[in-house]
Design a protein that fits this description.
The chain is α/β, with parallel strands linked by helices. The chain has 13 helices and 20 strands. The chain binds adenosine-5'-diphosphate, aspartic acid (ASP) and magnesium ion (MG).
Length: 413
Amino acid sequence: MTRLVLKFGGTSVANLDRIRASALHVKREVDAGHEVAVVVSAMAGKTNELVAWCRDASPLHDAREYDAVVASGEQVTAGLMALTLQHMGINARSWQGWQVPILTSDQHGSARVEALNGQHLIARLKERREVAVIAGFQGLHKETGRITTLGRGGSDTSAVVIAAAIGAERCDIYTDVDGVYTTDPRVVAKARRMERVAFEEMLEMASLGAKVLQVRSVEAAMVHKVKVFVRSSFDDPVASASSGTLICAEEDIMEQQVVTGIAFSRDEAQITLRGVVDKPGVAAAIFGPLADAAINVDMIIQVVSDDTTTTDMTFTVPTADFERAKTILESAKSAIVYATLHGTNDVVKVSAIGIGMRSHAGVAARAFRALADKGINIRAITTSEIKFSVLIDAAYTELAVRTLHTLYGLDQA
Ligand code: ADP
Ligand code: ASP
Ligand code: MG
């Protein structure tokens, strides 16, 4: 007998038919004699709708009330999944985040899971042979007693931390694609499914835009050594074998490519300050106020002018913080001392990821040449041990992703 966590994302619970189809996957595991905990997302599109309602009601909304609203999507699907399972003759009970309880920090909107005692869930799984259906994405801040949410895509993280807490053998992430691909299969038809991908690579892929798993879920899986298997809820629920991708330790991958995947993120905005008076402390004057406002600055380029008295500073921030960043920099103009501020949302960050980059030189240089040959201008570059990223005009996203995918031999035959 095995203990498993099965997580179903938004498309997998988009309506009652999809919930029934997903419940059949649960039934297969229960019939095989396994102890099963299920984690569900909100119905597809629901969280976006709830977020939009919060913005409409109050543009500068109170984060605690935002969480009270957006956590409701998962509450509905947890109950509906439990009802569906019961209707199939399976003993099942729904759990809200506060009932488990999944205790988190008080960072509303992107809270971190701090404690989760799985003993109560384990007892119910064992003694009552009861499937636990847990609402993903939500938790509880104990001191204030308020509901929190774990950030967009957070049900993946709920699933992994629950798997760790109940000592599950595996955490199966059921989604609308049958695994992790070399790049987003909805953008590149030649993307290939990977049988296995290393934690470190998956972490980079997720943080650089591959939203198939939330970044924190990969972090949690790495830390707690949870086996994560990504597969499709659209697969035949009674078939014994299924295709998918196992997220695992680097040592468990036999053949390592230099570049294993290409990711892209439209969640970038570029800001350029021109004619910045070049003196010690200028970077601190620019980035200090942004850090104080919890705005994450990503790529940074500083170009010193010929006269060496001024400099141009280009950097990126998340699109959601673009307006706020501009306002902060405008109000700090006299402290920073610069001539002009330009900004654009019309950029995308394209990244190549691969553990093999550690031991191969010149991997990024090949990309710069290939992109130049296609007439794609690179606005900024960043590199680190196992990835590099380029910032380009958004209009070239697909061309750039396809170019790099082909360049590194990732296209499927
Ligand atoms: P869920 O609602 O099940 O959580 P998501 O929409 O969050 O599903 O994530 C699945 C989507 O991630 C896929 O539909 C796919 O378009 C996208 N995606 C982006 N990059 C990749 C990748 N490298 N491999 C697989 N899917 C990817
Ligand atoms: N429903 C939440 C979202 O859309 C959490 C999730 O689906 O993982 O972000
Ligand atoms: Mg998701």
